[in-house]
Design goal:
CATH architecture: Alpha-Beta Complex
Radius of gyration: 17 Å
Largest sheet: 4 strands, antiparallel
Mean pLDDT: 86
Strand content: 15-25%
Order of helices and strands: HEHEHEHEEEEEH
Number of domains: 1
Low-confidence stretches: 218-230
Enzyme class: transferase
GO cellular component, one term: nucleus
Keywords: Glycosyltransferase, NAD, Transferase
InterPro entries: ARTD-AVP, Poly(ADP-ribose)pol_cat_dom
Helix content: 10-25%
Shape: globular
Protein name: Poly [ADP-ribose] polymerase
Number of helices: 5
Bound molecules: zinc ion
Amino acid sequence: MIFEQVSRLFEDGWKHPEKKRPKIKRIYVIDLPDHLNESYQEYKDMLARQNGSSGVNEQLVFHGTTRTCSLGEDISDLCEKVTCILCCILKTSFLVSKSGSAGRTFKRFGPGIYTSSVSSKADDYTQAPWFSDDRIIIVARVALGKSSIHYRTTEYLTEPPIGYDSILGEVGINLNYNEQVLFKDEAIRPAYIVVYERPTAAPAPPAPRPAPQPTRPNPATTTTSSSSSSGCTIM
Ligand SMILES: [Zn+2]
């Protein structure tokens, strides 16, 4: 069920006409430590009090990142490398303080956490490891609250304008595909990872896709406390 729902979200979000549809191989459910679930829920409760019950505006969005370890290759254990962006995010969730530290020096709306509802845009930020063609996109839950809508690049932003909780970069002038920017760690949590492969230049004939069951990363490793992973240096 989860596989169907998340793969449909991923496939429906694949918007770039010039990019061939990828092959989804596996989908993992992220089992977060309790304290990360609790702080996210507290943030949503705060938004509901502040904006009214319709003002939480929770969505599932995509975040592409580099894959360097074997996570997703048939194993579900997080690695211990402090340079592994993917495993760092899955251990600590996203951190605003790490914005741009993975080499994305251009930050269209300032130093926040960037996501998109367009999976093929998140794909631009993925990188496969040397030993595999499989890439990973994180599907994240975000509590957008009230979004300030921006059509133009505004790099000087350090937080949403007063009265808003997030930035929504909209299509029209500087953007071809949307992006959501969060400025608080507790406004976003990784929910799933999608392991997929870009099609090769010569497209294979369509074939019925097997329907693997969603798997869950080993709780013994995904519940690693943030203190033990504080050595993570990049995001
Ligand atoms: Zn790793």
